[in-house]
Write a structure and sequence with these properties.
Nucleotidyltransferase, domain 5, mainly alpha, five-stranded mixed β-sheet, 631 residues, 6% strand, 4 domains, extended, 27 helices
């Protein structure tokens, strides 16, 4: 074999030795000094692939053949074909003398890579052209049926494709009656079996019953019942409560049936809305089941804080002015074109109906575009346009150039941003927030005071709203117990000194948890002291390091073995959720009972009905307005 790069003559060893020479892989074979890096890398990969294929072939043929002579001959033929293919594709290959002849049975079955050889079934069925034809067929069906593109991200998508492929040709797709009849009932039965499996989990970890009340388009009052446990959330049922939603006794019977179905011993708390009839119903449930807690939805309560803040005169005026700016832009196509030009394609967000927190996120979106908006209304393109001389246009320009408006926007955003952060914590799908709610509220309050130390009159109305809602609805002993039992907060001596009263709340929780069992009460209070003094495993260096880095339930599972009863209580109670439904900030359709439209949704009827300002999305929220993180 003669190397065309370094002109070295290699006597014996076959093609593999020559490829090793070009790849520079073995120490006992001299490497080619003139071969390019690309070719060296290609032959290095070829050797590795060949070794892998040989290894697999030996495993497959070991049971059928006593020797590997025929296998070696087969791979010699494969190597020759590879060299031929590389020469045809223009890749420099080593020149060779007379090739080694293949004899025996293998000579009657040439490799599929040999020109003119019969292709394999797999190479035909999975060719590039056939694969693309299959992709186009799937895409056509999705577009014709208006199936969202993100449906391909479903966990069931690829298993469906694999199942269809395994059926081979001639498989007839499902028809409408079979899908809506037999298959639907079968899947419903599978879900029921899955829920039965969850019932065993509820006995181990305990659970939370979440009631999400809403009104549909037909004005029916519906209640969705869901069961949350650390492993996941299960939809239980939906009830038309139009005839009982306002009656406390009827609501109590409805919720009592749900509690009995799930099992009173399996339930830690029930979370609903905070309207008066639900509050009264919750008190009746707590009296009926002494170990059960009732809470209003934390996310709903925070949203009500935003509603009360929006009623403040300065806030209402500022939000209204921001709404008029947004609507005037989106109701005029030329102005919308100019805005996108000056803001480099970014949009101004507007709020969703009855989602009072989105008012302030929409306000933040307007504030983030302050400089581009000012540049736009003073640009030559705007002053020379036909709109410029209109009375409404002049009012719009005055609003954009109003320094007082922008100053009030900044103050409102700085004051409400901590509360939005609290709402994000309540909405988190990654972990339960029961042990963080108490700390989050007080941290938000402190941050609001800190930002306006020299302007206390500005922050006082906001603090009054926060304190009123916290004291009347959200401040529960279970939330305080979560603060006390969270090592990240309990062992921060300076911070904990401000909240020493949480010890009394923890004792209330222990008494309720051990209701009717004085021995368990004594054990819990004793183990409470062990945790307080960081004794046994609680005082390990690893436990100290992980106090603020590991989730509460995992931390207690690792280091709470010396206090088994307290460990069990913490894992069962404080791993629950404190919100009854997902309050994601990018929802367009909120389902509160009041159904009130807020001021930013009312379009100007005298102008074009083109209010197309986009709703909020997670990627765009707080992307431009930089505020120092605080939690």
């Amino acid at each position: 074999m003669l190397c065309i790069y370094c002109e070295k003559l290699i006597r014996g060893g076959g093609i593999h030795r020559f490829k090793t020479h070009l790849a520079g892989k073995e120490r006992d074979i001299e490497s080619c000094r003139n071969v390019s890096a690309a070719v060296r890398h290609q032959f290095h990969q070829s050797i590795e692939e060949l070794r892998s294929r040989k290894r697999k072939a030996h495993e497959q043929y070991a049971e059928s053949y006593n020797s590997c002579d025929e296998v070696e001959k087969e791979f010699d033929e494969i190597e020759r074909n590879e060299i031929q293919q590389q020469q045809k594709s223009g890749v420099p290959a080593p020149s060779s003398r007379k090739g080694k002849q293949v004899k025996g049975l293998q000579s009657y079955f040439p490799s599929a890579t040999t020109p003119g050889a019969q292709p394999t079934i797999k190479s035909i069925l999975q060719s590039k052209e056939i694969g693309e034809k299959c992709d186009i067929a799937i895409a056509k069906w999705m577009m014709d049926a208006s199936i969202p593109f993100n449906a391909v991200n479903s966990a069931y998508y690829q298993p469906m494709i694999d199942a269809i492929a395994s059926m081979g040709t001639g498989y007839k797709g499902l028809n409408y009656p079979r899908v809506r009849g037999y298959l639907l009932s079968k899947l419903v039965e599978d879900v029921r079996k899955m829920i039965d499996g969850y019932r065993e989990i509820w006995k181990q970890t305990r659970c939370t019953i979440m009631a999400d009340g809403w009104t549909d388009r037909c004005r029916r009052t519906l209640i969705n019942f869901l069961v949350y446990c650390p492993k996941g959330t299960v939809f239980l049922k939906s009830v038309d409560a139009s005839n009982v939603s306002k009656t406390v006794d009827a609501l109590f019977k409805l919720f009592r049936d749900v509690v009995l179905f799930v099992g009173p011993k399996n339930i830690v708390d029930i979370i609903t809305d905070n309207v008066a009839n639900y509050v009264a119903m919750g008190r009746l449930l707590e009296a009926e089941f002494p170990k059960l807690y009732w809470f209003p939805c934390a996310a709903h309560c925070v949203n009500m804080m935003f509603q009360d803040i929006g009623k403040l005169q300065k806030v209402s005026e500022t939000v209204s002015q921001a709404s008029m700016i947004t609507k005037y832009i989106y109701n005029h196509f030329y102005l919308l074109f100019l805005m996108r030009k000056f803001e480099r394609g970014r949009e101004i967000l507007h709020s969703a109906p009855t989602r009072f927190d989105t008012n302030f996120i929409a306000l933040q979106s307007v504030l983030a575009q302050k400089d581009p908006l000012r540049s736009m209304v003073t640009s030559k393109e705007w002053t020379s346009s036909a709109y410029y001389k209109e009375a409404k246009a002049k009012k719009f320009v005055d609003q954009v150039l109003d320094s007082k408006f922008w100053s009030q926007c900044t103050d409102i955003i700085k004051l409400t941003e901590p509360l939005v952060c609290v709402l994000r914590i309540m909405d988190s799908e990654d972990r339960a927030a029961m042990d963080f709610l108490y700390q989050a509220i007080y941290k938000a309050r402190g941050e609001m005071v800190k930002r306006f130390q020299k302007r206390k009159k500005v922050v006082d109305p906001y603090l009054k709203i926060l304190d009123t809602c916290w004291d009347a609805q959200l401040k529960k002993n279970l939330h305080a117990a979560g603060y006390w039992l969270n090592p990240a907060f309990r062992f921060n001596a300076e911070e904990f000194e401000k909240h020493r009263q949480t010890t009394s709340d923890l004792l209330d929780v222990i008494e309720k948890y051990s209701y009717g069992d004085p021995d368990l009460n004594s054990k819990l209070t004793s183990e409470m002291r062990i945790f307080k003094n960081a004794e046994q495993d609680f005082g390990r260096p690893s436990a100290i390091r992980e106090r603020s880095t590991v989730m509460l339930d995992q931390w207690w599972k690792s280091y709470g073995c010396g206090a088994p009863n307290l460990q069990k209580m913490v894992i069962r109670i404080l791993s629950q959720t404190c919100s009854s439904s997902g309050y994601q900030l990018d929802l367009e359709d909120d389902r509160d009972d009041d159904g009130a439209n807020n001021s930013m949704e009312n379009a100007n009827q005298n102008e074009t009905n083109q209010d197309v300002a986009p709703h909020l999305s997670d990627e765009e929220q707080f992307s431009d307005f930089e505020i120092t993180p605080w939690i």
